[in-house]
């Protein structure tokens, strides 16, 4: 088996937040949100992250994208520790790792034309070049017409808006996309279209995709490897279908059981 060569990796990352003192002279406590986390993604690979609410997914994402500095451990991009990288390496990291958020209706400014919104990362990341050409390339990649550039967010459906949010993330030509619940705000009927788009981008652009979702079937459809996080620790890693049909860790089993409970509840209602 060939050795994995991760593009973006967390190694032994621990993050703790201090808690307020419980009494005047008591020492401040601390709460460990992430405990010795190893997590990575290679180019052309889609990896999933699942875990119940409060397990630490958002904190992991913030650290993986460089928004938050871990208390200990390393975040490596292309083998370089982003927190000891020089300015030029930090700038290329900021371009190379982009996020797609859950709800495009709140992540896109309603008063901004789509064209202006798409150019925003180019401005904030100080990327020079032929921006019009780049806009057209990216619209083609996400399957939107060029007329979209002149329109405002309210003129689009939820699925089209998520395509626009993905287009914006693609503008800086990233090598990794981190998608946090990218389809949970969408109608089930159009979720598959956005998931297929993400899968196509992974394949066609050799992107790394980190995909976070509560819906295990969506994770199984989109990713080839999944990590389960519980109380700040990775408790199980594996191929998603295998892992969700034969979970080993009790926390994975709980996630699977929760889905089965909801599904049987829904079918009960239908009857
Ligand atoms: N800045 C902070 N200070 C103190 N505690 C925090 C801070 N940020 C997060 N936490 C706590 O860390 C834990 C993990 O939070 P996190 O948001 O990473 O979980 P999550 O898995 O993303 O949850 P959800 O799925 O509900 O978004 C929670 O108990 C949260 O209250």
UniProtKB/TrEMBL annotation:
<dbReference type="InterPro" id="IPR050319">
    <property type="entry name" value="ABC_transp_ATP-bind"/>
</dbReference>
<dbReference type="GO" id="GO:0005524">
    <property type="term" value="F:ATP binding"/>
</dbReference>
<dbReference type="GO" id="GO:0016887">
    <property type="term" value="F:ATP hydrolysis activity"/>
</dbReference>
<dbReference type="InterPro" id="IPR003593">
    <property type="entry name" value="AAA+_ATPase"/>
</dbReference>
<dbReference type="Pfam" id="PF00005">
    <property type="entry name" value="ABC_tran"/>
</dbReference>
<feature type="domain" description="ABC transporter">
    <location>
        <begin position="14"/>
        <end position="256"/>
    </location>
</feature>
<dbReference type="GO" id="GO:0055085">
    <property type="term" value="P:transmembrane transport"/>
</dbReference>
<keyword id="KW-0067">ATP-binding</keyword>
<dbReference type="InterPro" id="IPR003439">
    <property type="entry name" value="ABC_transporter-like_ATP-bd"/>
</dbReference>
<dbReference type="InterPro" id="IPR027417">
    <property type="entry name" value="P-loop_NTPase"/>
</dbReference>
<protein>
    <submittedName>
        <fullName>Peptide ABC transporter ATP-binding protein</fullName>
    </submittedName>
</protein>
<dbReference type="InterPro" id="IPR017871">
    <property type="entry name" value="ABC_transporter-like_CS"/>
</dbReference>
<keyword id="KW-0813">Transport</keyword>
<comment type="similarity">
    <text>Belongs to the ABC transporter superfamily.</text>
</comment>
<keyword id="KW-0547">Nucleotide-binding</keyword>
């Amino acid at each position: 088996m060939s050795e994995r060569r991760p593009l973006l990796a967390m190694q032994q990352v621990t993050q703790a937040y201090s808690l307020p003192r419980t009494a005047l002279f008591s020492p401040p406590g601390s709460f460990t949100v992430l405990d010795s986390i190893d997590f990575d993604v290679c180019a052309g690979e889609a990896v999933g992250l699942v875990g119940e609410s409060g397990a630490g997914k958002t904190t992991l994402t913030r650290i993986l994208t460089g928004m938050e500095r871990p208390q200990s451990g390393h975040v490596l991009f292309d083998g370089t520790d982003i927190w000891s990288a020089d300015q030029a390496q930090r700038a290329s990291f900021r371009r190379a790792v982009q996020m797609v958020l859950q709800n495009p209706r709140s992540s896109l400014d309603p008063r901004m034309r789509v064209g202006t919104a798409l150019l925003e990362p180019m401005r904030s990341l100080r990327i020079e070049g032929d921006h019009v050409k780049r806009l057209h390339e990216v619209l083609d990649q996400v399957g939107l017409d060029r007329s979209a550039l002149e329109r405002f967010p309210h003129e689009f459906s939820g699925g089209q808006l998520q395509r626009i949010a993905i287009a914006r993330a693609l503008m800086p030509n990233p090598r990794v996309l981190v998608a946090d619940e990218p389809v949970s705000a969408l109608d089930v009927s159009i979720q598959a279209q956005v998931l297929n788009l993400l899968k196509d981008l992974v394949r066609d652009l050799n992107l790394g995709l980190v995909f976070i979702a509560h819906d295990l079937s969506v994770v199984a459809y989109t990713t080839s490897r999944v990590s389960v996080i519980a109380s700040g620790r990775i408790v199980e890693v594996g191929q998603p279908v295998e892992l969700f049909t034969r979970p080993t860790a009790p926390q994975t089993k709980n996630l699977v059981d929760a889905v089965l409970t909801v599904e049987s509840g829904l079918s009960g209602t239908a009857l």
